[in-house]
Amino acid sequence: MAAVTTWVDGALHRDDAATVSAFDHGFTVGDGCFETVKVIDGVPFALRRHLERLARSARGLGLAEPPASEVREACRAVLSAPDTPRSARLRITWTSGAAPLGSERGAARATLVVAAAPLPDRSDSESVAVAPWPRNERGALSGLKTTSYAGNVVALAWARRHGAGEALLGNTRGELCEGTGSNVFVVFGERVVTPPLSSGALAGVTRALVLEWCAAEEAELPLESLPEASELFLTSTTRDVQAVGRLDGAPLLGAPGPLTREVAAVFARRSAADREP
Q1: Residue 114 predicted with pLDDT over 60
Q2: Residues 242-250: what's their mean pLDDT?
Q3: What does the H/E/C string look like for the chain?
Q4: What is the pLDDT of residue 2?
Q5: What is the per-residue pLDDT for 142?
Q6: How distant, in Å, are the alpha carbons of 206, 241, 247 from that of 231?
Q7: Vertex 119 angle, CA 244 and 5, to 5°
């Protein structure tokens, strides 16, 4: 990775000087939460929504909420650094801090890290495969954006081995839930549908804006219904609205379909007009 300036616990650091304790619970047991924010021309998109979700994830983990003023200061400092790309993804990480080796938390203050990297390139469409492991919609981490991400790493690596760029995950009820780093929308005729949060899906910021700005709805979706879809698309901070071109190796003809193109156009127009929707 290229050298970048990173904020760690109140100060800016460069390169290998940006470190946290080897005993930090975010490192040893994944006891933390995070957000990824899209930055265009040096301006973060929907930062308020991301910080609200970061606070919800912290509360869900039983952590103190990160001070919004401190996080905003850290974001401004990193974005003002001369080596930060003007178009970037900004990663905000909040952990419970240093602790004993094991599951018990310690008494140290929480750790805040803000880092930036160039926005990844993305294609107009993505291939997806349904992974064999379910999300537990009733688990302690359901709906939280935590640093306990190994399950997503395993599922995404499995998808790559099967010729796909994203894995789709069902839940324990056999319903569609989400991708490893995306929400999923399914088109049946004129209906644009996404799984409800009760499925275990993360409350994605882009997902919420699509529901607000477009004629989309929430509904429980059995995994068996996916082959009946006329269109599929993914949403996320770095994807925006991305068509699905192949499902489990089978092409979805005409992707992106007309409703996917319409939703993508609405999202592009509205998000360009308002960086803090």
Answers
A1: yes
A2: 96
A3: CCCCEEEECCEEEEHHHCCCCCCEHHHHCCCEEEEEEEEECCEECCHHHHHHHHHHHHHHHCCCCCCHHHHHHHHHHHHHCCCCCCCEEEEEEEECCECCCCCCCCCCCCEEEEEEEECCCCCCEEEEEECCCCECCCCCCCCCCECCCHHHHHHHHHHHHCCCCEEEEEECCCEEEEECCCEEEEEECCEEEECCHHHCCCCCHHHHHHHHHCCEEECCCEHHHHHHCCEEEEEECCCEEEEEEEECCEECCCCCCHHHHHHHHHHHHHHHHCCCC
A4: 58
A5: 97
A6: 18, 12, 10
A7: 155
User: Residue 143 region, left (φ>0) first, then alpha (ψ -120 to 50), else beta?
Assistant: left
Residues counted in the chain: 277
Model-wide pTM > 0.70: yes
Does residue 256 have a cis bond before it (omega within 30 degrees)?
A: yes
Q: How many CB atoms lie within 10 A of CB 119?
A: 16
Counting Cα atoms < 13 Å in the Cβ hemisphere of 99 gives: 22
Place of tokens 């760029």: 165
> Kind of pairing, strands 166-170 and 176-179?
antiparallel
Question: Is there a contact between 219 and 193 (Cβ–Cβ < 8 Å)?
Answer: yes
Residue 3: pLDDT band by 50, 70, 90 thresholds? low
Residue 1: pLDDT above 60?
no
- The amino acid at residue 19 is T
